[in-house]
Design a protein that fits this description.
Length: 321
């Protein structure tokens, strides 16, 4: 059998997750990563470009790993580790920084956007793409699953690989991005895109009551019970599409007018709880020690690979006598 391709991705905590994050990012990832030789890295040194609160950073590292484990990633099927545990990443980033130019890095959309939003333009933020290139290239990565917003960063990684290879000889593989298929925008309780910045979310890892409260607050029109409802425009139905066990049946009831919004919401609460209940249990059972142990094992596996690659790199650039 052909060897599995290497998959590498970096995870950033996005705070308390909601079902939009789950359906749009975590679930698609969990469904695919097992087909590859997968590595998942918590990008804690990248986080340092904007986060200067040590307690918050520690919490984010734990939460990021715990969220993915709860969503179904298992350490048996992926190397899960922290960027800061493998110093070869910052070492390789330096070497790439010496190969690319300032005007080239200045074209990065993510950098320009962050500065435009008022983030401090620190040198770490500017060099962010070369640290990301190091993350990816150190492991001879074939594919990098990411959201659309990260596409340019993978192009930068390819460019860094090409620069190195043309200067010192073939060393790094050029990776391909794998852009997540759009599940479309999951609507929030007010019908706008679900987003923590709009405060319209249905939480992923909160109590049944919190989920019920959010679902019951979904905006609906004033169609009286007994009248047909429009499944194309109803927000409750839009969410049922991702959770219902028997969607055609529900659609029929909408069209026939044999269901009202209240009952539809109650059914939605139950379907959401049935789907995410097991994940919440895993999330709640994860101790600090369990997560630390997984990260420690991951760090050893990642370091074994990265240090070997860096040995070759050091020879090629001429620092090994
Ligand atoms: P938020 O908008 O709540 O700040 P993030 O930007 O942190 O969410 O989202 C992280 C990822 O979760 C995004 O890249 C996207 O893939 C997914 N995601 C977030 N909100 C939605 C949504 N409403 N519908 C589909 N996917 C979403
Ligand atoms: N920059 C990525 C993000 O914001 C996270 C990341 C860091 C990453 N290193 C990576 C993603 C390597 C893919 C590969 O989401």
């Amino acid at each position: 059998m052909a060897e599995k391709k290497r998959l590498f991705t970096g995870l950033q905590s996005s705070g308390e997750l909601h079902i939009g994050n789950y359906l749009g990012a975590l679930k698609p990832f969990v469904e695919m990563y097992g087909q590859y030789d997968s590595m998942l890295m918590v990008a804690d040194y990248h986080a340092l470009t904007s986060l200067k609160d040590p307690d918050q950073l520690r919490k984010n590292i734990f939460d990021t790993v715990a969220d993915y484990l709860a969503a179904g990633v298992t350490p048996e099927n992926a190397v899960i580790f922290q960027q800061s545990d493998v110093p070869e990443h910052t070492e390789a980033a330096w070497i790439f920084e010496c190969l690319v130019t300032v005007p080239f890095l200045m074209q990065a959309h993510a950098y320009k956007d962050k500065v435009a939003r008022g983030l401090e333009a620190n040198a770490g933020l500017f060099n962010y793409p070369m640290l990301m290139a190091a993350d990816i290239l150190l492991y001879d990565t074939d594919i990098v699953p990411i959201g659309q917003d990260q596409r340019q960063h993978v192009e930068y990684a390819r460019e860094a690989a090409a620069k190195f290879n043309s200067t010192y000889g073939q060393t790094f593989k050029e990776p391909q991005e794998l852009i997540r298929a759009e599940v479309g925008n999951i609507p929030g309780v007010d019908g706008k895109k679900m987003s923590k910045s709009y405060k319209n979310t249905i939480p992923l890892f909160d109590s049944d009551d919190a989920i019920r409260g959010a679902v019951m607050s979904i905006t609906t029109d004033s169609t009286p019970v007994g009248q047909p409802l429009n499944p194309q425009t109803d927000i409750v139905f839009a969410l049922h599409r991702h959770f219902a066990k028997n969607l055609p049946d529900l659609e029929k009831r909408y069209q026939e007018g044999t269901i009202g919004y209240k009952e539809s919401k109650e059914l939605l609460v139950q379907s959401i709880i049935d789907t995410i209940g097991p994940m919440r249990e895993i999330r709640a059972s994860l101790s600090h020690d369990a997560v630390s142990k997984i990260l420690k094992q991951g760090a050893e596996a990642a370091r074994a690979r990265a240090s070997q690659k860096m040995k070759d790199v050091r020879k090629k650039i001429g620092v090994t006598l």
